[in-house]
Amino acid sequence: MNTTAISIAARLESALARPREWQVGILRKVGVDGVAPSLVARPASSAEVVEIGTFAKSEKLALIPCGRRDKTGIGMPPARYDIALTWERD
Questions:
Q1: Which residue has the higher pLDDT, 90 or 69?
Q2: Which CATH number belongs to the domain containing residue 14 in this structure?
Q3: Contacts of 51 by beta carbon, 8 Å cutoff, 6+ apart
Q4: How many percent of the chain have pLDDT more than 90?
Q5: What is the reported pTM?
Q6: How many domains does the chain contain in total?
Q7: Whole-angstrom distance, CA of residue 85 vs CA of residue 69
Q8: Which of 33, 24, 35, 16 is nearest to 86 (CA)?
């Protein structure tokens, strides 16, 4: 885990009402046009989605929600990709 991911994960965990385990292992799987995020967040509830979004906005982090990921190679690569937001489990 790189220092950017550690820093984001630590700040995100302290910002959430209920600490969670953040996974960094599937970075390539959630990549967009070859750009991987620093961190993969898997919220347990819709309230956590809101908390993660609020945190990303306040920290000026680039957050990309990951759905089925079937169109991640279409378009331009993102300039920044700090947090991937996904509901899938490995």
A1: 69
A2: 3.30.43.10
A3: 15, 16, 17, 43
A4: 13
A5: 0.72
A6: 1
A7: 11
A8: 24
Residues 68, 73, 76, 77: is their CA dihedral positive or negative? Answer: positive
Per-residue burial over 6-31, b = 16 or more CB atoms within 10 Å of its CB, e = otherwise = eebbeebeeebeeebebbbebbeebb
Return the DSSP state at 41: E
| SS3 of residue 8 by DSSP | helix
Neighbouring C-beta atoms of residue 34, cutoff 10 Å: 9
Asked if residue 27 has pLDDT above 80, the reply is no
Task: Establish if 90 belongs to a structural domain.
Answer: no
Side chain identity at residue 48, one-letter code = E
